[in-house]
Each structure stands twice: as structure tokens, then as C-alpha cells.
Amino acid sequence: MxxxxxxxxxFVCALSASFxxxxxxxxxKTPQAAVAKKTDSVAKQAPVASVAKSExxxxxAPLDFxxxxxxxxxxxxxxxxxxxxxxxxKVMDKEAFLKQMKTEHYLPMLLASAxxxxxxxxxRIPQGADPNIGTYMRQFAADELKYGQxxxxxxxxxxxxxxxxxxxxxxxxxxxIVLFKCWFIGCVACVQEMPALNELVQQYKDxxxxxxxxxxxxxxxxxxxxxxxxxxxYATVPNQEHYMAEKLLVNAYPTHFLxxxxxxxxxVVSEEDAIASLxxxxxxxx
Length: 286
Fold this sequence. Notes:
Elements: H1 3-9, H2 18-27, H3 32-45, H4 52-58, H5 65-75, E1 83-85, E2 91-92, H6 94-101, E3 106-111, E4 119-124, H7 131-150, E5 159-161, E6 167-169, E7 177-183, H8 188-192, H9 194-203, E8 210-216, H10 220-229, E9 235-237, H11 241-247, E10 255-259, E11 265-269, H12 272-285
Parallel strand pairs: 1-4, 7-8, 8-9
Antiparallel strand pairs: 1-2, 3-4, 5-6, 7-10, 10-11
């Protein structure tokens, strides 16, 4: 299953009930209610390395994949700066952490910490768990490793004309914050997020130093027909599959790129709420 198909079917997948049982037996024998009562005090008093067991049980890991995914998307943001811990709670290198996740054997779990950057600890995926969990972890760890090497470097050179004939180049966009949305018409998630992205464009409509540009796989006639029926306020560039795959290394859609005024890559994310948050932060710098 490729990542696109996996993401589209993600919310109908089910996590084996053995996941919760394995979580509890592998990490702590303390009754769940007792652990939940002491979570607040643990966060204030215990060293970060000793928090993992209590935090993991206190979140009440659900029996189904939907619940787990909700936990993951609410608490884990690998694209942000974070402090990485190995399975024993010791601080480790972030790149090594992601490489461990890439083996398909580990999940990141949130640790309680008063520090501004989140702390994540590797947790071994138990036998019997849905294999898609490991597949997901491998793909997203690989993406973070890949894009981590690109952050802070110039975005690959480009020269695009949108469906209205307007030209966007690496040169004429300097001095502006640029957002790229990578997508195609047949991508359900890509289309579903468009109303929220339209709101984002509206929020910054008075800023002439921010450009919203969508790079689409589809040809110009197909895009014109689509845009005649579906409101999307980004400038839309056709026939960009090669640039996205070969230059931006995109392998899942939608993917969003945030580029600063110097033409350097700030970050890469897949969710519209994440790109909205990152843009707000970038705007605050300027």
C-alpha cells in the first residue's frame, strides 16, 4: 500500500486490541487509574527520562486505530524541533531517533515536560499490532529525514506560469513568503482542505509579501474545468509532477512547503492546520 492510499483509508483501519495490552504489559504494571492520578505530580517532579511509563499509560491508548491516530495527530509533530529519547528514556540524536522509526518497529510517544520543545520517546510496536502502523512510521520518518536536510537551504530553482498566465520564478518571488501546495485533482484530501486554505488566503489578503501558489500534477484544461466548479484561491500551476517529484521529492499529497523571503525552505508539512501555524510564526518574524 502506498502512502497516498494509506492516508485515504487511514480512518477505516483498526488497531489490534493486543496493542493496548502489550502497551501496558511492556511498560507498567501500575493500575491505570492510579497512574492517571499522579500524572500531574510526575510532570512537575520527575526527571524527563523517568516520565515515559506514566505518560504512556495515562493517555489511555485506545483499542482502535482511529483513537490512536487522534492521539498521534494531536500530540506528535515531527516537523517541529523536539528532544528525542530512546526506548530507555535517554536523550538521543534526532536523526538517529528518526532512523529507528524508519525500521517500522517504533512509535514516538509524548513525554510530560515543562520545556517549550516537546519530548518524544521511542516505543516498540508490539507483535500483533496493525502492520500499517509501522508502514506509516517508516514513511513519515523517511520524509522528516529527507526534508530535514533541505530545511534552511534554497528551494530548488523554479519558473512557473499559472493557469492565468502569471509567471512565478525563484528570482521574482524573493522578498516574499511563499507557500507551495502540492496536489492533484483526484486527491480527496487535497480537495477537502481547500476551504480552510481559502480562509488562510483571506486572512492575509492585505499582505502583498505573501504568495499562495499551488503546484498541480494535472494539465491546464483539466484544472480550468475543476476551478470553474471548485473555489480555490491559490494561484494554480499545471503540469508540475516532475518538479514536485524530482526537485521537491514529494511522494504524498497534499504536501505544503513554506519558503522564507530569502528563498530558503522553512518547513514541509502535510496538514493545512500545520501550515497555517507555521505561516503565522513566519509572519511574526517579518
